Amino acid sequence: MARGRRVNSSGERSKQLLLEKAIELFSAHGYHQTKISDIVKAANLTQPTFYLYFHSKESLFNDLNSEFQKSFYDIFNGGLAQLEGNENVRKKMFAMLKDILSYFVQNPNLTKIGFFESAEAEEMKRELADRLVEIMTVHNIQGSMLEHVDTRIFVESLLGSLERLTLTKLLTEKRTPEMLAEDIINIYFAEQEELVR
Amino acid sequence: MARGRRVNSSGERSKQLLLEKAIELFSAHGYHQTKISDIVKAANLTQPTFYLYFHSKESLFNDLNSEFQKSFYDIFNGGLAQLEGNENVRKKMFAMLKDILSYFVQNPNLTKIGFFESAEAEEMKRELADRLVEIMTVHNIQGSMLEHVDTRIFVESLLGSLERLTLTKLLTEKRTPEMLAEDIINIYFAEQEELVR
Amino acid sequence: MARGRRVNSSGERSKQLLLEKAIELFSAHGYHQTKISDIVKAANLTQPTFYLYFHSKESLFNDLNSEFQKSFYDIFNGGLAQLEGNENVRKKMFAMLKDILSYFVQNPNLTKIGFFESAEAEEMKRELADRLVEIMTVHNIQGSMLEHVDTRIFVESLLGSLERLTLTKLLTEKRTPEMLAEDIINIYFAEQEELVR
Amino acid sequence: MARGRRVNSSGERSKQLLLEKAIELFSAHGYHQTKISDIVKAANLTQPTFYLYFHSKESLFNDLNSEFQKSFYDIFNGGLAQLEGNENVRKKMFAMLKDILSYFVQNPNLTKIGFFESAEAEEMKRELADRLVEIMTVHNIQGSMLEHVDTRIFVESLLGSLERLTLTKLLTEKRTPEMLAEDIINIYFAEQEELVR
DNA sequence: TATGAATGAGGTTTCATTCAT
DNA sequence: TATGAATGAAACCTCATTCAT
User: Which UniProt keywords apply (chains A, B, C, D) (predicted)?
Assistant: First the structure.
């Protein structure tokens, strides 16, 4: 390939392309198995071009992770805000789950990176769990039938379900966010006369 | 500097040591971030010694994974065999979970590798889920309260809970296998007059 | 984004700017640590513009070096011409040194490049020394007190003093050309009844 | 070249070889123009071998520089200690210079690196000059004929002479340490009845 | 059995330079 | 005249693996 600018080339487009390919490859094969050479090959560009738009492989990965986390926190915090107050917990939980899962389907590869691949994902989930436990404790939420289960356990279990169902049912498009949110609600907040006591 | 066989050295001992350190490091930092040099350093041996006992880094990892899978399948299949027949499902499930979790606590690092790190883990879990779904369907198991939840979803959710609780509660020794098995049973098989119909 | 010729731009101005910045940066950080990207950034221009005016990084550096050498040779040769004849050597030497040092202070960065940085500087100094030795020998100049010192050594020593004093006292503006010329004369041509014999 | 250990190879020897070649090349072409590939090629080894013995190109260079500086400081401080007290300054100066120059001839390439190439060289020389000025001031040393020259200037001039004569006469083996030390003494400490006042 | 010594292969990153506009 | 966009070439460095002892 000759040196210099290509016909019809655009920086914005190239950067976008690299970003897309990076997300695809990172999510498909993980950080270590994705080489810069893979990314630029997929984008039909060369390695120096990568460094025109990104500082380093690591920083690109971190940026992607941050992007995910930011969006996720926004949605999660929005949902949590609704949860305060103890009526209609079931409905509110459903709404929050649906929002989260909707974001996931709309950004499947970013989700794989930020929710499953990155080192920071685990910390984020721990925080998540902490917040949920707190809210549930303060507002005295938890299905009556689960009265024998510690709230912390309840929450971690739910998180695990969310993780696995996302991976196997949502991102494989076997189920929609709505369906999955309903499933989870059915499992963790079985319908009852009164959810709180 | 001295070379050759060390006094008091035994091949088996060296191999065992390398195995242990490899398990520790792979489980702690993952495959790619664990270098052969790290393993042998931890074992106080040298790199060529590694190749005396293992064909390659990859094959060692695969061996460890296989070891885990074999044990796991044994336990799982044992449990499944009990499950056939539809009385006392709750108890049998509890027993199976307890067995699995017991194996996990006894082999925490191998579990991290074989259940969480390896590429084959996912496939194994898929199989697991398949078998569980099959059994549950054939024997018509599933709590009445979950009648609105598809069996496949139910099973994947349970698997997710198992994963996450193992990681956050069992391997951190915050909960025993018994406790955790009970928790899961309480969540997924809430006590009822009759579990099956 | 806008491309093409800027309003108010003039080729000469851009070239001059690049030249200035290049001199600054080459003199401050040396050839290898000065990147084209640094130069154009400092000049608020872009890399291709650099190649509009200069053939390459190396050729620019060489040009700068040549510019210095040319000026230097002019001054030096002028001074040498005066030196022919053996009266008033002290005064003539002083004048020559002052002229050289004046040029140095007026072109501090170019001096750093052409007198200290460039590979050719050494060759130039060798020539310089040769010429000085020749003149001094032919005209039988050299302080009586230094009768035990070989002329070549005398000259190289003086050159070394010139180098170091330029670097540490002149270019740091701790001393004027006049002062420094006098200092050197005082060291190398201590006042005597008769300078020559 | 086949992989693995070569016949008759020795780590000590390889390291030494690399060190030698590195010193040669760094001193001949400077830091930036000396590639690791050059060094290992000269040593008939491969690049990874370099990293078996040195942490990085930069650290190797720094090590070499430090080695020079340490030796130099030792010699210099030894010389300075002798200088305290004001009799026989001429002799003591001669001795010190001879020691320094002797070290230089014995380590010509290291000298080029540590005294002429490294960034730290300048700082070292500044310190050197400071110490000399201090000693000369305190002990009231300085040739009578140089009474019109500021001590600082005197010292910097001497240092410049030392630099240049080292480069052009000593390292080219045109003059021995003894001869050069004498030359410098003759220039800067012209014989007199009394050196101090 | 074990190690000292070495390397093939390949990774990330940098930089001077060039093309298309 | 000037720039946005791109790349060839090559630098430093790492790691799994292997040979000679």
Answer: DNA-binding, Repressor
Measured between CA atoms, how close is A10 to chain B, in angstroms? 36
Name the interface residues of B facing A (CB cutoff 8 Å): 32-33, 126, 129, 145-146, 148-150, 153-154, 156-165, 168-169, 175, 180, 183-184, 186-188, 190
Structural domain contains residue D37 = yes
Let me know whether B87 and B48 are in one domain: no
Please report whether residue B6 resides in a domain: no
Residues A131 and A105 in one domain: yes
Question: What is the count of residue pairs from C and D with beta carbons less than 8 Å apart?
Answer: 84
Residues with pLDDT less than 50, chain B: 1, 193-197
pLDDT one-digit tens code per residue, D111-169: 999 999 999 999 999 999 999 999 888 887 765 556 788 999 999 999 999 999 999 99
Residues 29-68 of C with CB within 7 A of strand E: 34-37, 47-48, 50-51, 56-58
* Distant-in-sequence, close-in-space partners of A146: CB < 8 Å, separation ≥ 6: A154, A188, B186, B187, B190
- A131 sits in which H/E element: helix A119-138
**Rounded CA separation B52/B45 (Å):** 11
| CATH number of the domain bearing residue A105 | 1.10.357
Which residues make beta-bridge pairs with D141? D196
Answer yes or no: is A57 CB < 7 A from strand E.
Answer: yes
Is pLDDT above 50 for D196?
Answer: no
Quote the CA–CA distance of C119 and D33 in Å, as a whole number: 12
* A121, amino acid identity: A
Residues of D (35-94) placing their beta carbon closer than 7 angstroms to any atom of strand E are 45-49, 52
Give the closest of C32, C126, C157 to D187, CB-based. C157
Q: Does D142 map to a domain?
A: yes
CATH of the domain at D33: 1.10.10.60
A190 min Cα distance to partner chain B (Å) = 7
Residue span of the structural domain in which C34 resides: 11-54
How many CB pairs (< 8 A) connect A and B?
Answer: 83
Q: Which nucleotides of E are covered by protein (CB under 7 A)?
A: 1-21
